[in-house]
Write a structure and sequence with these properties.
This protein is an alpha+beta fold. It has one domain: 2-Layer Sandwich (Alpha-Beta Plaits), CATH 3.30.70.1340. Helices cover 22% and strands 47% of the residues. Strand 2 and strand 3 form a beta hairpin. It is elongated. The protein starts with a strand and ends in a 5-residue tail after the last strand.
């Protein structure tokens, strides 16, 4: 079984919650998650952000649900690191 160790997402979100609250909510999905967010663009109502998430076994569906719950939408998966069971 393979495990997702790192994923980079292009996300569109409203101004609220702010990026700190957004990062905390994603990080709270698992105690081992490390989240980095870079704001790429800001307009009147939204922010385009790059979310970099690292962990031992990232559950993408759970992350997608957390982002959707905060009214964000994933535009693309820009990068991913997956390792096989024998490498983890």
């Amino acid at each position: 079984m393979s495990r997702v160790k790192r994923i980079v997402l292009d996300v569109l979100k409203p101004h609220h919650p702010n990026v700190l609250e957004f990062a905390r909510t994603i990080a709270e999905q698992d105690s081992g998650y490390r989240v980095n967010i870079t704001v790429e663009a800001v307009d009147e109502k939204t922010e385009t952000i790059t979310v970099t998430l690292e962990g031992t076994d990232i559950q993408f569906e759970q992350i997608g649900e957390a982002i959707a719950h905060m009214s964000g939408s994933i535009h693309s998966i820009d990068e991913v690191t997956v390792v096989g069971e024998s490498q983890s």
